[in-house]
Write a structure and sequence with these properties.
The model has no long low-confidence stretch (mean pLDDT 94). The chain has a domain of 174 residues: RecF/RecN/SMC, N-terminal domain (Glutathione S-transferase Yfyf (Class Pi), Chain A, domain 2), CATH 1.20.1050.90. The strands form three sheets. It has a six-stranded antiparallel β-sheet with strand order 2-1-4-5-6-7. The protein has a six-stranded mixed β-sheet with strand order 8-12-13-3-14-15, with helices on both faces. The protein is 40% helix and 23% strand. The chain has 373 residues and is an alpha/beta fold. The protein has ten helices and 15 strands. Strand 5 and strand 6 form a beta hairpin. Helix 4 packs across helix 7. Bound molecules: adenosine-5'-diphosphate and magnesium ion (MG).
């Protein structure tokens, strides 16, 4: 997939913005801090998954002092088919978010997978040491883009979770009834089972090539395992659903006390064990980064296989954090993909990049400027 142009209206630091990217595959967005580089990648991430890859709230995405934003892109598939994708989000007169493909209005969920994207963010450099939420996002962002069924369950689960949590707090305050929890719990168990099973199966697929990928990046661990951390052990959808239903009931009292749901896939986690030990507990910074890079390549090929389309790659501020071997490997492995890379540094070693200078809401091509070795 190729992004041919991007148009923004009242998105973040861009009151009005339009850019055609031209032919090259590798686009370097160069500029100082706060120039607006990440904002551009974030806009692309919203077209792809319906939400910001930074998890930002809708209101923060609208240019300050405004009440809506628009993101529009012209894309071309690997087979040459052109399309437009658009997301419009408004706060007033009422909160609404709508998607358009070829100017046909669609529920935002139907946008999933139209523009496949894999992102690599600065917080991913410490993926295994950081909070579980980014690790969960990695799985969910991949799955919503390849499976409309997963997206439907995921969206519905989030909604049910908010409803159960709100009721838990009302019960704590004496204005809600415990027997009303059952309705939300039934749904949470049903959708939660779909999500949990999808996580487990995705990790199994990634597992298949993980060792090989790590070896090719120079790590020589004997055995590498992706492990899913969850409460429960059932392996069928029905089994997981029954376990979740049981646990939600069992932990009601604790959940009431805390005012939120403490069990379910929104609390699950995963890790990599190398030769029997968790990467987070022993691996050097360099080894952790190697593992993250391996995961990036696995996500890209998973997406490509499942969607039959090469995803766009967003690399936000990570390139200059990698050593030279990994930088070179990144560029060669992602050949043939359209890559958007933000950086505050000059990045040597890339000769074929189109370089864009980003400065206070303006983006200009730097034709004379080549990133040289
Ligand atoms: N909703 C918003 N409205 C206007 N400006 C915003 C909004 N959100 C962020 N900004 C501005 O965007 C800039 C940060 O842009 P960003 O893309 O993160 O920069 P960088 O080039 O460092 O990646 C900051 O100057 C910030 O004040
Ligand atoms: Mg940035």
């Amino acid at each position: 997939m190729r992004l041919e142009s991007l148009t923004l209206q009242q998105f973040r630091s861009y009151p009005s913005f339009e850019l055609a990217f031209g032919a090259g595959d590798l686009h370097v967005l160069h500029g100082q801090n706060a120039a607006g580089k990440t904002n551009l990648l974030e806009a692309i991430s919203i077209l792809s998954s319906g939400h910001s890859f930074l998890g930002a709230e809708e209101d923060d995405l609208m240019t300050w002092g405004t009440d809506h934003y628009r993101i529009r892109a012209a894309v071309r598939s690997d087979t040459g088919e052109g399309r437009t994708i658009e997301v419009v989000s408004q706060r007033l007169p009422r909160r609404a978010r709508v998607g358009f493909v070829n100017d046909v209005r669609l529920p935002i969920g139907r946008l999933m997978g139209v523009l496949p994207v894999v992102a690599f963010l600065p917080q991913d450099l410490s993926l295994f040491l950081g909070s579980p939420s980014r690790r969960r996002d990695l799985l969910n962002d991949l799955l919503v883009q390849v499976s409309p069924e997963f997206f439907a369950s995921f969206a519905s689960y989030q909604k049910l979770l908010r409803q159960r949590n709100a009721l838990l707090r009302r019960i704590r305050e004496g204005t809600g009834r415990a027997q009303d929890l059952a309705v939300w719990e039934e749904g949470l168990a049903r959708e939660g089972a779909v999500i949990t099973l999808a996580h487990v199966e995705l990790l199994k697929v990634l597992q298949l090539s993980l060792e090989e990928e790590l070896r090719s990046l120079g790590e020589s661990w004997q055995e590498v395992r992706l492990t899913y951390d969850r409460h429960g052990s059932a392996t069928t959808r029905e089994g997981i659903e029954a376990e979740l239903a049981h646990d939600l009931l069992h932990f009601r009292e604790r959940d009431q006390l805390i005012g939120s749901t403490t069990i379910g896939p929104h609390r699950h986690d995963w890790r990599i064990d190398a030769d029997g030990r968790s990467l987070a507990s022993f691996a050097s910074r360099g080894q952790q980064r190697t593992a993250v890079l391996a995961l990036l390549f696995l996500q890209v090929s998973y997406m490509e296989v499942r969607r039959g389309e090469k995803p766009l790659i967003l690399l936000d501020d990570v390139f200059s954090e990698l050593d030279q071997t990994h930088q070179e490997r990144l560029v060669t492995s992602l050949k043939g993909h359209q890559v958007f890379l933000t950086t505050t540094h000059d990045v040597p070693g890339i000769s074929s990049a189109t370089v864009w200078e980003v400065r206070s809401g303006k983006v200009m091509e730097q034709p004379g400027r080549r990133m040289r070795a």
